[in-house]
Design a protein that fits this description.
214 residues; alpha+beta; three-stranded mixed β-sheet; 6 helices; 7 strands; 22% strand
Length: 214
């Protein structure tokens, strides 16, 4: 059975026929540190083991940015901003057409893409004296997934464009909450963790405020 492997290499951005990338189990801690607003999820196959999530993702700087997340059931997921998502689509067209029309049932091609989140994950609080282990996310896609991706691409593009128009208002609401915290708590009690918890607990309020400003 032939398939196409969509992979992220944490050190480079390229497109090649390498088959050395292995999936990595979900990291609960990493997934809960970064939160998405206005999220829409699209299943790419019947079992929904391959999905695309589109939403506003909180970055390590504390601001929200429109991102697309492509994930599999045994992978952390690959994140694309608007530019890298467009590049991914441009490079996938040829692979998808070749796959859907090919008679070769043993060949596996790889599309290797930079991951928007790689810099943020790498900048975590790992002691500088310890060598960080690099890893790559690999998502294997077959015919059903390809067809599912083709069916939702226009929806993903439209939702991404809509989120870009909301980004400024969302970040203004988030900054307003932070200022409220700073006014109501002594400076010594205000730290990054308190701000994270407050933003996490007020996502519904942020969404309501943004909707009223449309």
């Amino acid at each position: 059975m032939d398939s196409l492997k969509v992979a992220n290499n944490s050190d480079e951005q390229m497109y090649s026929n390498l088959n050395s990338f292995k999936p990595r189990n979900n990291d609960m801690e990493r997934n809960t540190r970064f939160h998405m607003l206005f999220t829409t999820t699209y299943g790419l196959n019947n079992s929904h083991t391959k999905t695309i999530h589109v939403g506003l993702q909180r970055t390590i700087e504390g601001t929200f940015k429109p991102l697309v997340k492509l994930s599999g059931n045994n992978a952390d997921g690959i994140y694309f901003d608007a530019d890298s998502w467009k590049q991914f689509q441009d490079n996938m067209v040829g692979y998808m057409n070749e796959y859907l029309t090919s008679d070769n049932r043993m060949k596996t091609n790889s599309v290797v893409s930079g991951n928007f989140r790689k810099e943020e994950v790498a900048s975590d609080s790992t002691p500088p004296s310890k060598k960080r282990r690099t890893y790559a996310v690999a998502i294997v896609m077959q015919k059903t997934t390809f067809l599912g991706l083709q069916n939702v691409v226009k929806c993903v593009d439209a939702h991404l464009k809509q989120l870009e128009s909301l980004t400024d208002n969302v970040n203004k609401c988030a900054q307003y909450l932070i200022r409220e915290i700073e006014l109501k708590l002594p400076v010594s009690f205000v730290n990054q963790e308190i701000i994270k918890l407050t933003l996490r607990g007020n996502y519904d309020e942020i969404e309501r405020n943004v909707r009223t400003q449309k």
